[in-house]
């Protein structure tokens, strides 16, 4: 029987509370601490989940020997320092995506001991979705032949926190959404060798958040071309303009193609020019039931920490490649500037 896992949460905003809600629903998990630079948010979280230990100092979480595992749910720019300190203090860490937006920070964390890195899980939850696993299995079985190119699109209406639209807080479409598709690029096709920014811009320069109008400084639309070591080219489009969440992934091979998305209304379509078992020639459709990806991810993390699973649900493997893509895109945006759209 799995032993009780004690958990602390750093970052008590919307995502931190989603983590807390899921942890509190799991057997053999005990929430023991909350931390936020806004002490009132940590206090509110403690009262909501009946946890007496709350603080605005992450060092207290690092030094607390009662805590085995920590969810890091803060803006990306704060990840490196927190994750580094937590791993060195012996904690298991579930860090929200991306691990970092800076290639040097990613390389710095990758140089930590292998024992430390085993305790680090990154929140690329799309990998845990049955659709992504199904696509990966198809690629490994050579059903569609050698993949040549792919187009991945992800869109949403944009976050309801001002920082999600601010470039100095690592907001914007690419870091909020596109990183999931960059990680899936690595997951499906392997090492990324190059990335080019095709276009990015601010289509909606002012947004109303919680009754206040803010000036948007991070690109809410991004189009990036990625080249993988195996020769596959992937186009990643991400935006914060879509009224309802949207995800479409298309992969072209020399014997067919895959068209998929994680929305429950969208079946996975596998088209083959020649039949390859277990698929027939032409279109093959498969529908998946709705999946709570964050619950799956956190449940797998808890099992890993508790020892009932030896598999890290999402290790550091892709993080340097993802950070390298983000770094290149940002340099390009600084060089050419962002296109501005409607008022």
Describe this entry's structure for a reader.
By secondary structure, this protein is of the alpha/beta class. The chain folds into two domains: about 5-125 and about 295-315, Rossmann fold (3-Layer(aba) Sandwich), CATH 3.40.50.720; about 125-290 and about 325-340, Dihydrodipicolinate Reductase, domain 2 (2-Layer Sandwich). The protein has helices at about 15-25, 40-50, 60-65, 80-90, 105-110, 115-120, 130-140, 175-190, 295-305, 320-335, and strands spanning about 5-10, 30-35, 55, 70, 90-95, 120-125, 145-155, 190-200, 205-210, 210-215, 220-230, 235-240, 245-255, 255-260, 270, 280-285, 340. A nine-stranded mixed beta sheet has the order 16-15-14-13-7-12-11-8-17, covered by helices on one side. A six-stranded parallel beta sheet has the order 3-2-1-4-5-6, sandwiched between helices. Strands 9-10 form a two-stranded antiparallel sheet. A hairpin with a 7-residue loop joins strand 14 and strand 15. The model has no long low-confidence stretch (mean pLDDT about 95).
Number of domains: 2
**DSSP summary: helix tally:** 10
Low-confidence stretches: none
User: What is the terminal separation in angstroms?
Assistant: 58 Å
CATH class of the largest domain: Alpha Beta
What summary fits the major beta sheet?
Answer: 9 strands, mixed
What's the rounded overall pLDDT mean? 94
H-E order: EHEHEHEHEHHEHEHEEEEEEEEEHHE
Helix content: 25-40%
Query: What's the CATH topology name of the largest domain?
Result: Dihydrodipicolinate Reductase, domain 2
Q: Say how many strands there are.
A: 17
The CATH architecture classification of the largest domain is 2-Layer Sandwich
Structural class: alpha/beta
Q: By CATH's scheme, which homologous superfamily of the largest domain applies?
A: Dihydrodipicolinate Reductase, domain 2
Shape: globular
How is the largest sheet built, in terms of strand order?
16-15-14-13-7-12-11-8-17
Q: Hey, roughly how much beta strand do the residues contain?
A: 25-35%
**Radius of gyration, Cα only, in angstroms?**
20 Å
